[in-house]
Design a protein that fits this description.
- It is elongated, with a radius of gyration of 19 Å.
- It has one domain.
- The protein is mainly alpha-helical.
- It contains 5 helices and no strands.
- The relative contact order is 0.15.
- Helix 3 runs parallel beside helix 5 and helix 4 packs antiparallel against helix 5.
- Keywords: Membrane, Transmembrane, Transmembrane helix.
């Protein structure tokens, strides 16, 4: 079954549904990224303090405590499950676009690697492997970038491109 580029053939109603879905999803996704920025200051020290606390820093302006085992496992579990569903649904839409096959495959599969690296990294950092904060930063940035590119590709393919970009 050939599905490469069929997004252009979708009925108007389905195209609008996809647009509303990815728009609503993006509000939630980038709202979550904004929360991460606010709670970690988007830097390695902030990420480490968010999960390991800063109880030993006498000059800290805001006291933070190490997450409990239950808190960290709940966070990792919830994010891995929910982001896996989000990126699976995005991949189902992406597979119908007409972009180059290798780019499409990268945009479809990379987020799953980043999910494991980001949230596995948070868990490993919490266990004491503090250099994992750099893996968390890199994989989180990559996951967010791939999400943004995927949204742009989907919207562009929905409404602005009638040809396959192969």
């Amino acid at each position: 079954m050939q599905i490469h580029g069929v997004i252009h053939q979708f009925p108007r109603e389905l195209k609008l549904l996809i647009l509303v879905f990815v728009s609503t999803l993006s509000i939630g996704f980038f709202g979550g990224i904004s929360f991460v920025k606010d709670t970690t200051n988007a830097n390695p020290k902030g990420i480490e303090e968010r999960y390991l606390g800063n109880e030993n820093d006498e000059e800290a302006t805001k006291m933070m405590f190490k997450k409990s085992s239950g808190e960290i496992k709940t966070l990792v579990h919830n994010h891995i499950l929910s982001l896996s569903v989000i990126f699976f649904l995005m991949a189902l839409i992406l597979v119908t676009t007409g972009v180059h096959t290798k780019l499409k495959l990268f945009l479809m599969l990379e987020p799953f690697v980043s999910i494991i690296c980001t949230f596995g990294g948070i868990y490993l950092m919490w266990t004491g492997i503090t250099w994992m904060k750099y893996v968390v930063i890199i994989s989180g940035f990559l996951m967010t970038s791939v999400y943004a590119v995927s949204i742009i590709v989907i919207i562009q393919q929905l409404f602005f491109n009638r040809r396959s970009i192969e």
